[in-house]
Design brief:
alpha+beta; three-stranded antiparallel sheet; three-stranded mixed sheet
């Protein structure tokens, strides 16, 4: 670390502790050349995951969008906030564990549907109807048939 006063590389850490908010490490340093002290903050650099949307545009991953979609699908259903939070956390974990810096919105949508199907079938169908953009009642019925078929097998 270079000294901000004399530009020397001969500095050393004399004290380290977590910053007030816990998101960084606060380091007190001493310059061996000019003898002055200064403070630096060390923080982990995170590069946001990018989501590739259906129209091939990219935007940063936003956990709140998954939460909102699940909350809308579960509106007036017997699904607790703890269940919703658990689903969001599991989906987010699966995305991060995949190890890719970019993920498609289609992949995220399928993860959401998979979780909803296990928790509440009505919420699943609600989400699927918006996500898959059902055009008519026939498409809706086909999705219900798939749901019944998966329960039988």
């Amino acid at each position: 670390m270079k000294c901000p006063y004399c530009d020397s590389d001969d500095t050393r850490v004399i004290n380290s502790r977590p910053a007030e908010d816990g998101s960084a490490i606060r380091r007190r340093r001493h310059c061996d050349v000019c003898g002055r002290r200064f403070t630096t903050y060390e923080k982990v650099e995170t590069i946001p995951f990018m989501v590739i949307k259906k129209d091939n545009t990219r935007e940063p991953f936003d956990r709140a969008k998954i939460e909102k979609g699940i909350l809308n699908a579960c509106h007036k259903r017997a699904v607790s906030l703890q269940q919703i939070e658990k689903m969001v956390l599991e989906i987010e974990t699966q995305i991060f564990e995949a190890g890719d810096k970019e993920v498609t919105s289609t992949y995220i949508g399928e993860l959401v549907m998979e979780k909803l199907r296990l928790v509440d079938e009505v919420a699943y169908v609600r989400f699927a109807s918006v996500y898959r953009e059902f055009k008519d009642a026939t498409t809706f019925l086909l999705e219900l048939e798939k749901l019944n078929w998966s329960k039988e097998n």
